[in-house]
Amino acid sequence: MSKNNEKRRNEILKKLEQQPSLRIKELAEFFQVTTETLRKDLFVLEQRGQVNKTHGYVHRKDGYDELPIEVKVEENTELKDQIARKAIEFVIDYSVVYLDPGSTTLSIVRYFALKKGCTIVTPSIRIVQSLLALKHEILLIGGLIQKKGSTTTGAFALDNLKHVKIDTAFMGTDGFKDCQGPTTFSFQELSVKQKVIEQSKQKILVCDRSKFFKTGTYPFARFSDYDKIITNPIDPKEKAMIDSAKEIVIA
């Protein structure tokens, strides 16, 4: 598979996240490729269940609109790394740490090389793969595999979490514009996230600045449920959106 083709497909998904319908001809002009080449990209994305195509237009798939993890990891990488470097400061050696599925929490993984003897709990297959080279215990929460997010979820995952006491939980969000707390696009993840909050001593929301302008479908908590929110430099209006949190940490 050509890396350029896959990169272009990821860019198409990013554009559809901002605008639910786009003209195929205009997309071809933007990427400076033929409409035939672009239609091949759209065919692949349609086969993956990520878009719908009609005459002359491509549409964001209705329903679960979360971008695949492969797309997310390429977004705002520098901002996420700044957050990750700050987040690891709140991890104590030999503690139990939960990492939510998501690209921001995935960014934290490399900094666990600075820590000793942690037990890392996660439902994210991608995070587990990244942790294998490090000297920490890994507890993969079992459950139904959600392929787009490369994570487990559902009733089995929820039952597993009931048996784990977490010292520090790092949780992400799909956005919170016009909301009183973080949201997710996945209904199945809703109860899992809420159980993590219930099982954790220290709860930390990690979110890059773009999440102030996006919103998922399902709110799963309030900002006041978190001990800390770690984000990038924000203006007073954005700070007011999350000021019910106990502490706002700027990375």
The CATH architecture name of the largest domain reads 3-Layer(aba) Sandwich
Mean of pLDDT: 89
Gyration radius, to the nearest Å?
A: 19 Å
Number of domains: 2
Regions with little confidence, pLDDT below 50 for 5+ residues: none
Silhouette: globular
Instruction: Determine the fraction of residues in helical runs and give it as a percent range.
Output: 25-40%
| Terminal-residue CA separation | 37 Å
Question: If you consult CATH, what is the topology of the largest domain?
Answer: Rossmann fold
Give the class-level CATH name of the largest domain: Alpha Beta
Question: How many β-strand stretches?
Answer: 14
Global structural class: alpha/beta
- Percent of residues in beta strands? 15-25%
How would you describe this protein?
This protein has 251 residues and is α/β, with parallel strands linked by helices. It has two domains: 60 residues, Orthogonal Bundle (Arc Repressor Mutant, subunit A); 181 residues, Rossmann fold, CATH 3.40.50. Helix content is 36%, strand content 21%. α2 crosses α3.
